[in-house]
Amino acid sequence: MENTITNTKNTDKVRLMLVDDHKLFRCGIKSLFDTSSSVCVVAEASNGKEGISKIVAQNPDVVLLDLELGDINGLDLIEKVLAQKPDVKFIILTSHINEHVINKAMKMGIYGYILKDINAEFLDMIVKSVSTGAMWIDKKVVQILRELNPNVIPATQVSRSSFKSTHANLTAREYEVLKLVVDGKSNQQIAAALNISEHTSKAHVCNIIQKLVVDDRTQAAVKAIREGIV
To answer: Where are the CATH 3.40.50.2300 domain residues in the chain?
Structure first.
């Protein structure tokens, strides 16, 4: 059984708990948040039974969990916890895409369904976004949800022209940069992808942040998704 992680200095941060039966994977995810300015891992669990106990005891803001926990199914854990702690926000982090599981998870009220091949650095943004009440669903999962619920989820996102009508001062290049920011790319990676200098890449990101009236690149990415650019 894993020990609870105590953290009394970061009470203003998003309190995150990890539930996964692979210790190496948990350690990898936890290390991503060790330097985060807004998220701290307060506990972790290696199976469903331990997970339920610690979630109830620690009352985290967000729980990042796998569906396969060895002793019980992740969906069963979510159901049991929400019956006691309805305010806990769950993000499923899994390697599998299953229509039945996705549909059931959405009906249960999860806030995120992401695949384990996601850009690791992107997780920080997702956790912060979910903690505020936003929903984050992997693009591959969104396609399945559209097929299952054609009358509820539109087949297309808001058009770029519609987005541009709201933020008409964004240039074509800034749109390209913004999409890479949404994908979790660093300034160096953006520069390489667009064949521009890192200095120019950083300048574009700064301009985008100013034009979207947000505080940082994370908020810019979240706003872009909510406004329909991706």
So the answer is: 14-148
Residues 6+ apart with CB under 8 A from 17: 41, 42, 43, 44, 45, 51, 54, 55, 58, 60, 62, 63, 64
Asked if residue 64 has pLDDT above 90, the reply is: yes
What's the N-to-C CA distance of the chain in angstroms?
Answer: 41
Q: Is 34 helix (H, G, I), strand (E, B) or coil?
A: coil
Q: pLDDT (tens digit, 9 = 90+) per residue, 142-193?
A: 777 777 666 555 444 444 444 445 555 788 888 889 888 888 888 889 999 9
Our CA dihedral for 92, 93, 98, 101, rounded to 10 degrees, sits at -20
Chain mean pLDDT for the chain: 81
Q: For residue range 77-131, what is the model confidence (pLDDT) as tens digits?
A: 999 999 999 999 999 998 888 888 888 888 888 888 988 887 766 788 888 888 8
The answer to whether residues 46 and 66 touch, using CB atoms and an 8 Å cutoff, is no
Fold type of domain 160-227: Arc Repressor Mutant, subunit A (1.10.10)
Class of the CATH-defined domain 14-148: alpha beta
E strand or H helix that includes residue 25: helix 23-33
Dist CA 16 CA 33 (whole Å) = 9
Residue extent(s) of CATH 1.10.10.10 domains in the chain: 160-227
pTM comes to 0.64
Rounded to 10 deg, the angle between the 74-84 and 99-108 helix axes is: 10
